[in-house]
Amino acid sequence: MEWGARRRLPWWALIGAIVGLLVAVAAGGVLGFVLNRNVADVSRQALGRDLRLEDLSDELRFAVLNVKYRQYRLMFPRPTRDSVEDFDAAYRDLLSSIDRLEGLDVGEPDLEAPRLRGAARVYYSDLRPAISAYDSRPQRFASASERGLVRINRLELSSERLDRLAEGRARAALDVVDRTSRQSALILAVVQGGLVLVGAALAYGSVRVLGTVRESYSREREAREQTARSLRVRTDFLADASHELRTPLAILRGNAEVGLAMPGDCEHHELLEDILHEAGRLSRLVDDMLFIARTDSGAPPLQMAEVDVEDWLGTLVEPAGVLVAQRGASFRARLDARGRLRADRGRLDQAVLILVDNAANYSPKGSEVELTAHTWGSQLVVEVRDRGPGISREELPLIFERFYRSRGEGLRQGGAGLGLSIAKRIAEVHGGALRAESIPGEGTTMVLSLPLLGV
């Protein structure tokens, strides 16, 4: 087993082998493509030039032989009107055949179209006048006929040479096509073999990759389930602890209130006030922890109803002003929003007052905390602005994390670090969002946006 594990092909070697095979197959395919292009070019060359040259050389031989035959008809027994017309027509056919050779690269000067055309014209220009003068000068016709036969025989030899040359070129071109086709077939076979190897390698690699993915998925699922279990345990613990703490805290507060309500001076009056105050803080912390536990479990405790925005915002002015005044800052509200929300009004109060309290906590004494509200499209936008020390760019993404405490200067009263996290969660369960904008040294603005109804 250990030896087999050592001999197992590493995944990077497998990928390298597949890439190498793909490169080889691609190179073979490119070479095959080039050869196929060569075959096509050679084929076009053979069909467009060499085979055409062979056809035209055959046509030229026939035209020369036809002229030669028509000359014999003139000579035996004697020229007639019909035989002269046939001779002229055969000569014109010969010139047409030579013209069709024009532009083809024969490769031998003696067989080029201009040379053949010149020989044909010398032949005709010498014989044709003698034919017309046959009746008056038969001896001239006889001499011209003998010279014409010599010249037409030369043309016949030239046409035979041209025909042999064309046949040789056509055979050579077809041999090249055949040889290139065989090479292309061989390369195609090699490429197909390479594709088979690549397919096998890919199949093997796919099996290994799927195995790795399945294993990774199993580990991820196990980790996810473990995380879910841990989160559930933590949520259950927070919920249970919150429930368990509520009763003794209620008893503690009740006893302190009873002690403070007793007639006469009590020597423990200040102590009872401190107990009542701290019990109140602990009760609020327990409520916050219970809210977080329920939102983590996906069932936040909300009592949804339609809320009039103007009326709701108006009820926030007084408690917000009290919170700010307790911190020694001034408060200003500019509320210019209308519309309706579907929300848990108590939770929205909690979110906004958390933001106001946080702003007052960071504001220097005598500075101003501003609460503004306006509508933007289908959104209600509530902003809380302070003139505190601001938040650095590095710290800004962290302020909404649970139990996070800012390191900025100017903080006068501590907290558990849950306020902004709870405010953000309240915004999100209402379909809205909460973000922070801050300039160090100038202050921070918390922006709460909520969706309006029927907009």
Summed up:
With 455 residues, the protein is an alpha+beta fold. It has two domains: 2-207, Up-down Bundle (f41 fragment of flagellin, N-terminal domain), CATH 1.20.1330; 305-451, 2-Layer Sandwich (Heat Shock Protein 90).
Topology:
Layout: H1 2-7, H2 11-75, H3 81-100, H4 113-132, H5 138-261, H6 269-296, E1 305-308, H7 309-326, E2 330-335, E3 340-343, H8 345-362, E4 368-376, E5 379-385, H9 419-429, E6 433-439, E7 443-451
Parallel strand pairs: 2-4
Antiparallel strand pairs: 1-3, 4-5, 5-7, 6-7
Helix pairs in contact: 2-3, 2-5, 3-4, 4-5, 5-6, 7-8, 8-9
Secondary-structure content class: alpha+beta
Say how many strands there are.
Answer: 7
Low-confidence stretches: 1-7, 409-413
Order of helices and strands: HHHHHHEHEEHEEHEE
Supply the CATH class of the largest domain.
Mainly Alpha
The overall average pLDDT, rounded, is: 78
CATH architecture title of the largest domain: Up-down Bundle
State the end-to-end CA separation: 69 Å
Query: What percent strand?
Result: 5-15%
Give the helix level as a range of percent: 55-70%
Query: What does the largest sheet look like?
Result: 5 strands, mixed
Strand order of the largest sheet: 2-4-5-7-6
Total helical segments: 9
Count of discrete domains: 2
What is the rounded Rg?
A: 53 Å
Principal-axes geometry comes out as rod-shaped
The CATH topology of the largest domain: f41 fragment of flagellin, N-terminal domain
Main attributes of the structure:
alpha+beta; Heat Shock Protein 90; 2 domains; two-stranded antiparallel sheet; rod-shaped; disordered N terminus
